[in-house]
Amino acid sequence: MSTPSIQQSSTSSLSSHLWEGSELYRNAVMDLENAATVMDLDRNVMTRLKVPRRAVIVSVPVRMDDGSVRVFEGYRVLHNITLGPGKGGIRYHHHVNLSETAGLAMLMTFKCSLMELPLGGAKGGIRVDHTQLSRAETQALTRRYTMELMTVFGPESDVPAPDIGTDGQTMAWIMDTYSQGKGHAVHGVVTGKPVEIGGSLGRAESTGRGVVYTIEHSVKYLESKGKPHPKMDGSTTVAIHGFGKVGAVAAEELHMRGVKVVAVSDVSGGIYNPKGLDIPKIKDWIYNNRVVKGFPGAEWISNEQLLELDVDILIPAAVDDVITEKNVDRVKARMIAEGANGPTSSVAQQKLEARGVFIIPDILCNAGGVIVSYFEWVQGIQSFFWTEAEVNARLAHVMARAFKKVIGVKERYNCGMKSAALISAIENLSKAMLLRGLYP
């Protein structure tokens, strides 16, 4: 049974409660404050953006395969819906909590605004080690979680998507459960679902593909300014932290361009070969062995060691808060492309930028997923579907436009890429908030 929503009427208590939680939320607020100072943001707008519009905690009881009943804790946070329905993934992970979910929802708000999408920011999750559940248990967990949030989810109110620990099958179960409650198929209630039930072509690869697009734009920008830059060929080395839905696609795209991917990692650790890794063979290895550990012809390293490799480009594409004050001085990459949400702490980011490291911020770098999720949402509502070539062309256009806008703000304010991306997002969002006003 759902607990009452936490509303914005008690700003100070909510802010304090969340501030004491995850590092990701604290960093999101700190980055917001830094950007607000640079752009002289309206103080009332900043106050509203520091806290979510609504945060819901639900109990999710599940009958396990052995007949026992376990109760899991689930969350859904709507940060801001000024521009449109809430949009954000659902995460199944044993470290999920309300504070982290709120921080991720805030990043989704800025990401959607930066991309000029008619969507707001949301995020959800269940605190669970999904690797320990059977398929039947996972389905029961997903369907009960959906039922608890039937009044929250909806194509015009809050549209979930996959995240860590969830996939297209999870979205199919959510869509089916929601549709059963409505009495008809509702394709627009989730994105990232299989193509057979209204999903979009190109959605699965979109986030990783977008990461590579932003790297290409960054290389061209640095070259145009006469600054040291990597090249999109075999002379450039790349390390990828997280060989999942984002990292594996980015690795494959880079490998196809002839770029030398020298290290990748997952929960089992990492593999490293300074001469370059054969990415297609690694994907085949994982298909048969589930993890990268043991892949022949490569040295085993830890995830921590991978982050500290002397490479041209580092792509943190797994979880948040992996580059912090503790290890930032050992990070040697000249460019960091944030494939994950919030992988670099605010303090670490400032130190890296002071050293001349070019950071492609998360709300720009990994926005490919939400862009194609928007395309899927539109296709579902219209019941009119595009070819994969059309999807990829539209994705490339939106990301190029956003990158150009961020660079313009960076040069206007003479600030780092992180601040520039946030300022670009907040400029668009704050205008909409001020035009709509505050009710009542």
Strand order of the largest sheet: 9-8-7-6-10-11-12
Please identify the structural class as seen in this structure: alpha/beta
Question: What is the average per-residue confidence, as pLDDT, rounded to a whole number?
Answer: 92
The top level CATH class name of the largest domain? Alpha Beta
* Number of helices in the DSSP assignment: 15
Helix content range: 40-55%
Which term fits the overall shape? globular
Describe the structure.
There is one protein chain. This protein has 440 residues and is an alpha/beta fold. The protein folds into two domains: 8-196, Leucine Dehydrogenase, chain A, domain 1 (Rossmann fold); 204-365, Rossmann fold (3-Layer(aba) Sandwich), CATH 3.40.50. The protein has 15 helices and twelve strands. The strands form two sheets. A seven-stranded mixed beta sheet has the order 9-8-7-6-10-11-12, with helices on both faces. The radius of gyration is 21 Å and the shape is globular. The two termini are 30 Å apart. Mean pLDDT is 92; it is low at 1-13.
What's the arrangement of secondary structure elements?
Layout: H1 11-19, H2 23-39, H3 43-49, E1 54-63, E2 69-80, E3 86-93, H4 98-114, E4 120-127, H5 135-148, E5 158-162, H6 168-182, H7 203-224, E6 237-241, H8 247-256, E7 260-266, E8 269-272, H9 279-289, E9 299-301, H10 303-307, E10 313-316, E11 335-337, H11 346-354, E12 358-360, H12 362-365, H13 368-382, H14 388-413, H15 417-436
Parallel strand pairs: 3-4, 3-5, 6-7, 6-10, 10-11, 11-12
Antiparallel strand pairs: 1-2, 2-4, 7-8, 8-9
Helix pairs in contact: 2-4, 2-15, 4-15, 5-6, 7-8, 7-13, 7-14, 13-14, 14-15
